[in-house]
Amino acid sequence: xxxxxxxxxxxxxxxxxxxxxxxxxxxxxxxxxxxxxxxxxxxxxxxxxxxxxxxxxxxxxxxxxxxxxxxxxxxxxxxxxxxxxxxxxxxxxxxxxxxxxxxxxxxxxxxxxxxxxxxxxxxxxxxxxxxxxxxxxxxxxxxxxxxxxxxxxxxxxxxxxxxxxxxxxxxxxxxxxxxxxxxxxxxxxxxxxxxxxxxxxxxxxxxxxxxxxxxxxxxxxxxxxxxxxxxxxxxxxxxxxxxxxxxxxxxxxxxxxxxxxxxxxxxxxxxxxxxxxxxxxxx
Length: 283
What we know:
Elements: H1 2-14, E1 23-25, E2 28-30, H2 32-40, H3 43-47, E3 53-56, E4 59-61, E5 70-74, E6 77-81, H4 89-98, E7 106-110, H5 116-119, H6 122-129, E8 132-136, H7 140-144, E9 157-159, E10 164-167, E11 170-176, E12 185-193, E13 196-203, H8 214-228, E14 234-237, H9 245-253, H10 268-281
Parallel strand pairs: 6-7, 7-8, 8-9, 13-14
Antiparallel strand pairs: 1-2, 3-4, 4-5, 5-6, 10-11, 11-12, 12-13
């Protein structure tokens, strides 16, 4: 298994994006290669649990160092957002248990876009829990090609832009924010915590490919204004680095006011990805 994973890592590296163009946002310089390296880290980072923790209200982090997985807990069961790789199923299960919850209580599985590091584990989680797997219509064709070990990718409900996903008094809204994939999905929800209401945004990747077709450009040209218009108090992302999870967690552990409530930082990652997109397409 380790040899296979190292081979996969080599293959990914061989296809890594170029170290250009470069953009500077808020004093930090980024390239396509540096963004991908920041997001993915090493194979060990992708597989090693980050300490599971409560983010805000009924939203918890149960992912790894570099691959996000979120648990939204309700009286009627839980919603799991991003199963990541199939091999991480046990790690996520253990993180859920460490928080005092049960993996068996997962009733709905969502994913933010049809890439293996985010949704490869959908089939095994469906088998473990019987949960309903829901996906944006535009990503269904790509998901159907995602068959780890030959397992068919389950899709129990097809979502469309603006659809609501409801469980136990919690409502998430699925927004089509395409570009990275055809059906890349940003989920939003509103929750109260200590008498304070917060708008929580689970951003999908907004990372542009190296080659932008007219169709992809049209998607991004719709997506960037859309995400900037979303009400946001708590920005989250499909990779923890996109919202500074490790630094915020350290502040949380030190007893600071909840650093995940970060209205000022809601669109920091959007700024980076939009600047890179415009650099790639030359406008």
